[in-house]
Design goal:
Largest sheet: 7 strands, mixed
Distance between the termini: 25 Å
Strand order of the largest sheet: 3-2-1-4-6-5-7
Number of strands: 7
Radius of gyration: 17 Å
Strand content: 15-25%
Helix content: 25-40%
CATH architecture: Alpha-Beta Complex
């Protein structure tokens, strides 16, 4: 099985090299290969030049834009370019640990899930501010109430999908609304979201964190909007996995 690791980045030059080295060295489930797709979303701090060196060494695929459109737009580009059986979303920072790839990917490889989220809330996440913790709780409760998601971490960045499942819906996200939009649309199609425990080390605005309170409001509105809006499907439907269960 091939795993496509999609990484949207914007102005992450100081830490991106560490992230990419960890991604390229991270263990995968037995029998899996990887492709790494980095979407450089209009970086201006030297990130583009750093990525060029990795691309020249044939370590990853890079797509660059001339403007900063947003994380959601970058992810949609990466999803279109992915050629793997599985798509895994990886942020371009050090909040998440690629050593958790096996845990996140194994249910997909085994055929026990079509959608897997890595939950940060088995224990209290390190360094997470109360406001961020509260926003995550509100979004998770809303997803559970509106969609019967049965999850503990709606806004986690570690999300993995069987490729045919993810491409079965039309995504519209531009900024940080990817998480609520994909949660809403996967659940409306009937996909069970399987959770596994992951580690997490939060960073702050001074360390480059880009999400703001306005994005939390947009995420909440996205969950509400897609509960009632017509569901836009892609051309090719996929079989919904009926398996239940959670690793948390």
């Amino acid at each position: 099985m091939k795993v496509s690791i999609v990484i949207p980045v914007y102005n992450e030059r100081h830490i991106l090299g560490q992230v990419l080295d960890r991604v390229l060295a991270a263990p995968l489930p037995a029998g899996c290969t990887r492709e790494v797709i980095v979407v450089d979303d209009g970086s201006t701090d030297g990130t583009t030049e750093l990525l060029a060196r990795y691309h020249a060494a044939s370590l990853l695929h890079v797509h660059s834009t001339f403007e900063n459109f947003g994380k959601g737009a970058a992810l949609r580009v990466g999803i279109r370019k992915a050629s793997g059986d599985i798509i895994l979303v990886q942020d371009g920072d050090l909040e998440y640990d690629p050593k958790d790839y096996v845990a996140v990917l194994q249910p997909l490889v085994d055929g026990r899930a079509t959608v897997v989220y890595g939950s940060r809330f088995a224990t209290r996440p390190r360094n997470m501010k109360f406001a961020n913790w509260l926003a995550n709780r509100i979004l998770t409760v809303t997803a559970n109430l509106l969609y019967g998601a049965g999850i503990t971490d709606e806004a986690t960045a570690y999300k993995a999908f069987r490729t045919e499942a993810l491409r079965s819906v039309r995504l519209r996200c531009i900024r940080f609304e990817f998480c609520p939009e994909v949660t809403a649309k996967m659940r409306r199609l009937g996909h069970v979201i399987h959770e596994v425990n992951i580690s997490y080390n939060a960073r702050g605005i001074l360390e480059g964190k880009k999400i703001r309170w306005q994005d939390g409001v947009e995420a909440l509105w996205t969950l509400i909007k897609y509960r009632f809006a017509p569901l836009e499907r892609a051309a090719t439907p996929v079989r919904v996995l009926e398996a239940r269960g959670s690793g948390t």
